[in-house]
Every structure is written in structure tokens, then in C-alpha cells.
Specification:
About 75% of the residues lie in helices and about 0% in strands. The chain has about 130 residues and is mostly helical. The N and C termini lie far apart (about 30 Å).
Length: about 130
């Protein structure tokens, strides 16, 4: 990964490695929050969004390094929970603040895709 390259959500859709895709998504969220102007009152929503969005990929990376199948599943389940929490914060921000709904919907769609992929990996792994 090249840090100087700015990836968009659309570019992330071309990535097939879920850890890389989660990283690109987190990067998109960080860059989005960095551009948005919001009141101090709304700081906690954006803070929670950043925490949950960046937690997805961190947990997937930790899961890949797991010593056992149960370790792997534990971290992937946490990653899935973080993806679902991220969707919650994106929807709350979209529906309560006068921000660009198109950009938020793009991020929301990517979070949804990532959560579906992680859920599929969890289901497949449990079946093995």
C-alpha cells in the first residue's frame, strides 16, 4: 500500500482482499471526517464513527494473525460488529446533519458491502 495514494470508495470496490478493502474504507472515512466541518456538539458522533470504521480493519488484521480458528473467528466477529456500528453512525450523521448525503451514502454502501463479506467469511469458517 502506498500512503501517498488517495483511494476513493469506488476504487476500494475493485479490491478483493478484505483486509485491504477495510483499510481503504477506514482511510476514506478518516479523509471524509477531516474535510467535514461540524459543531463541537457533534464531535462525539464523528469520534465514534472514526473509532468503529478504523476498528474493522484492525480486527481483521488481528484475526489473520490468530493462533487458532476460534481466535480468527473472535476477531472477525468483532470486525463485523464494528462494521455494523459504523453503519449506525453513518446513518445518524446522514439523517441529523446537513451534510452531503451522497458521500455519506457511498460510505454507508461500502460499510454494508464489507459487513456482508465479513459475515460470509464467518459463516464459511464456522462450517469448516
Amino acid at each position: 500500500m502506498q500512503d501517498e495514494v488517495l483511494y476513493t470508495v469506488e476504487e476500494a470496490e475493485k479490491v478483493y482482499n478484505i483486509k485491504h478493502r477495510a483499510y481503504l474504507f477506514a482511510k476514506s472515512v478518516v479523509l471524509y471526517v477531516n474535510e467535514v466541518k461540524f459543531d463541537k456538539l457533534h464531535f462525539s458522533m464523528f469520534d465514534q464513527l472514526l473509532r468503529s470504521a478504523t476498528s474493522i480493519g484492525a480486527n481483521l488484521a488481528e484475526g489473520r494473525a490468530g493462533a487458532s480458528k476460534n481466535d480468527f473467528l473472535k476477531y472477525y466477529i468483532i470486525g463485523l460488529k464494528s462494521a455494523n456500528e459504523t453503519k449506525y453512525w453513518l446513518c445518524l450523521i446522514r439523517d441529523t446533519l446537513g451534510l452531503d448525503k451522497n458521500k455519506l451514502n457511498d460510505l454507508l454502501n461500502e460499510a454494508d458491502e464489507i459487513s456482508k463479506i465479513i459475515a460470509s467469511i464467518i459463516i464459511t469458517t464456522k462450517g469448516q
